[in-house]
Amino acid sequence: MLRAIPVTIETFDDAVGPALRHQAVLNQLELGIVDSIRAEPTRYPQGVRMLALADDATGDVGVAVQTPPHKPLVSMTGETVAHELGRRFVDAHGDPRFVFGPESAAMAFARGAGARDPRAVSRDGVFELREVMPVPAATGFARIAGPEDALLLQEWMDAFLEEALPAGFPKDPRAGARLAGNGLTWLWCEPGGEPTSVATNHRRIAGWWAFGYVYTPPAHRGHGWATSLVAHASTWALRSGAIGCTLFTDLANPVSNRIYERIGYRRVGTRATIAW
Fold this sequence. Notes:
2 domains; Aminopeptidase; eight-stranded mixed sheet; globular
């Protein structure tokens, strides 16, 4: 029997947090959105939509979360729960046409939403790391970004979205200022001090520190700067108390996947964008 779980930002931790944290790396986006809204309540002006279900027969729990205009997310859950989440989401909010989540759950959500021909339009590898492997050191040094880097980071984040994410993905005009001021954004710089690459520790879930927005402008590529930066930032995270690090990669980009694997990241799952 499927049972609806009433859930809000205020009740999320008690209502569904323990279930999602059993697979925190795979559910990090759903968990992280709640943390980001608590830290910055005005970040998503259109609000947040949440649905949660439990299967009392199996103990399975699933959550769907959306911060419009972004596509909904579905957590790691069984296909029965995910299918019903899709059906109820459409009833409550209309047909979203896209969903992002662990591939089997996302596909079941889409079918529950009424999709006749759901298809994966992109796949992200979910990677985790517990030990940093030695990599060749690039020239230059790493430093934490500061307020003076806000304009550069905004330019780079806009370029990252255009290059790495689907067309039309909403840009955040405050991304540069936010990253420059959070004390969690790392830059790799040439010996003379010019920034060449960025990586952000933008999420911390159940002891896992997530890195993302790893970006090197085209003019700076091919020097190993991003590799050294991610290795440096991952080492910093482990020494600062993280039980492990995690990141997503585009599985259509084998070059970046090999880079992360050399550092010590290992793939533990796949999240897919399903369209219909």
